[in-house]
Write a sequence for this structure.
């Protein structure tokens, strides 16, 4: 169905919801056309009703009549209306034991003819009613149908079902927007939209920050619950992102959130072990009893961003103490020892990303406190990565090390070293070559990995923001990086929870602004939000010529 027809049907639906009489010929409730109408609620799952009739308009009139009976008058007036019109139906099938259904839940809904229950793709995905193995989560599905329709779905060992595809339209002002796989089909990535998405991400983080300054680390929006695990490195990175948002917006909520995050992080700071009397530093130590180079690096980034954004140097000495840990872990060769153990020794395998985090942190701290030891350490570490770790690696196989590229951008500005510049562009070119440009699904365009994921795409965007800055300072054409960034950020925005794709979650208001793992995995973790918000702010600054 075309957009104009969808807009007309929505206008008719809104009129019927408001109490207008149904047009002649739309009272019949049998026929081959099927429409599912939904009405959004800010803090609860949408109200849903289906209708059947000889025409699409008649089917919608039946659905709206049922919807109006179930929604309060206030809800009917305040909610946004959505219609899903059945476009294609598959053959009726019997679910394979144990309840396996052969559908693509990201694009297909399911109709159980024996009960008349129709479930939209968005419902299947957002409530995780069907697993990755295509097996129906029976208990979860039965509970959801009872919640949605106030009736029970017959419990059968095998279900007769029909795969169905829809055309979907949602009210937007006085018009309509078409959705593809639950998302706005065409994403705009101009400065205003980038800022809106970044701020929405920041508001998600504040909404999920606890009184003690920590965050709900992994949020499961389908059940409105958190996982129990936590990660201090990602806490530090999230705090850094909140302070970037404060610098970009001057919104005091983000400053307070950043301060609370710093205070929570510094509660995990410890001096060296008692049996290491010559050492002098502070380190961020996790519950497992190990301090990580990346933990100190990201903590320094949060502390320096706080000073840059506020002018308040209250934590500069703490940042220098953390830098002392980085210097302690740096060998003469320039190789970082990833961990320092306070309890029994564990694995000390090299991390890909810790050195880049440390290099960037040392450079940022050096700009605030020009101690030559900081710059020398960053330079030595970068040389080791380039001339030892990556020396024999062809460009196509280079790690897409965004932290290193960001650090090299700083180092080139501080040292004008050609070695750092050429390696930064090697990383950037390796990233550009891996972007989805002609994917099997149109909404994969701009992403990275299979299936494309929001955070790997966002980290590559952060890297290309740095590469674009470096190219501009070097008098080189940065168009290729800007083009890739435009595609990347459009994909990232498709992965963000907004008012169009959260309809069927138990608490849409709590999920808003979060970035899910990818288009068909709805888990939200704080680092997903951190990297996406930071990269969107960075690209916005590039477009506005602020960097």
């Amino acid at each position: 169905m075309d957009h104009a027809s969808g807009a007309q049907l929505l206008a008719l639906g809104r009129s019927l919801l408001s109490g207008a009489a149904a047009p002649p010929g739309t009272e019949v409730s049998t026929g081959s056309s099927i429409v599912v109408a939904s009405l959004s609620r800010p803090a609860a799952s949408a109200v849903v009703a289906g209708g059947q009739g000889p025409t699409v308009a008649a089917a919608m009139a039946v659905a709206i009549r049922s919807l109006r009976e179930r929604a309060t008058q206030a809800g009917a007036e305040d909610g946004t209306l959505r219609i899903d019109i059945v476009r294609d139906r598959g053959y009726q099938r019997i679910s394979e034991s144990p309840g396996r259904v052969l559908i693509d839940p990201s694009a297909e809904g399911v109709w159980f003819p024996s009960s008349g229950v129709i479930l939209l793709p968005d419902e299947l995905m957002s409530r995780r009613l069907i697993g990755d193995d295509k097996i129906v989560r029976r208990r979860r599905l039965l509970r959801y149908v009872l919640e949605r329709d106030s009736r029970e779905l017959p419990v059968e060992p095998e279900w007769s079902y029909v795969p169905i595809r829809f055309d979907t339209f949602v009210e937007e002002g006085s018009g309509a927007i078409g959705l593809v796989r639950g998302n706005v089909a065409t994403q705009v990535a101009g400065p205003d939209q980038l800022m809106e998405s970044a701020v929405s991400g920041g508001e998600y983080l504040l909404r999920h920050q606890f009184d003690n300054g920590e965050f709900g680390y992994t949020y499961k929006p389908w059940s409105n619950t958190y996982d129990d695990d936590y990660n201090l490195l990602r806490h530090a990175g999230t705090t850094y992102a909140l302070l970037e948002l404060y610098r970009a917006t001057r919104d005091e909520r983000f400053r307070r959130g950043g301060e609370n995050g710093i205070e929570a992080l510094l509660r995990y700071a410890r001096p060296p072990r008692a049996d290491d009397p010559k050492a002098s530093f502070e380190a961020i130590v996790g519950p497992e009893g190990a301090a990580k180079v990346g933990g100190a690096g990201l903590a320094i980034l949060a502390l320096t961003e706080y000073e840059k954004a506020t002018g308040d140097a209250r934590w500069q000495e703490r940042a220098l103490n953390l830098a002392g840990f980085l210097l302690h872990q740096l060998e003469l060769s320039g190789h970082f020892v990833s961990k320092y153990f306070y309890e029994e020794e564990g694995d000390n395998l090299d991390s890909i990303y810790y050195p880049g985090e440390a290099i960037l942190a040392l450079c940022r701290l050096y700009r605030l406190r020009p101690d030559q030891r900081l710059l020398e350490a960053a330079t030595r570490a970068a040389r080791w990565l380039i001339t030892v770790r990556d020396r024999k690696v062809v460009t196509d196989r280079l790690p897409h090390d965004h932290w290193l590229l960001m650090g090299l951008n700083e180092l080139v500005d501080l040292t004008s070293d050609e070695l750092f510049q050429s390696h930064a562009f090697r990383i950037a070119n390796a990233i550009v070559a891996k972007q989805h440009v002609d994917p099997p699904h149109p909404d994969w365009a701009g992403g990275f990995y299979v299936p494309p994921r929001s955070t790997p795409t966002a980290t590559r965007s952060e890297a290309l923001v740095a590469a674009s800055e470096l190219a501009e300072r070097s008098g080189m054409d940065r168009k290729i990086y800007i083009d890739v960034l435009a595609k990347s950020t459009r994909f990232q925005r498709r992965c963000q929870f907004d008012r169009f794709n959260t309809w069927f979650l138990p608490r849409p208001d709590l999920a808003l602004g979060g970035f899910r793992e990818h288009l068909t995995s709805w888990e939200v973790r704080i680092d997903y939000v951190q990297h996406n918000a930071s990269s969107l702010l960075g690209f916005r600054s590039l477009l506005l010529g602020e960097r």
Observations:
- The first helix runs from residue 3 to 17.
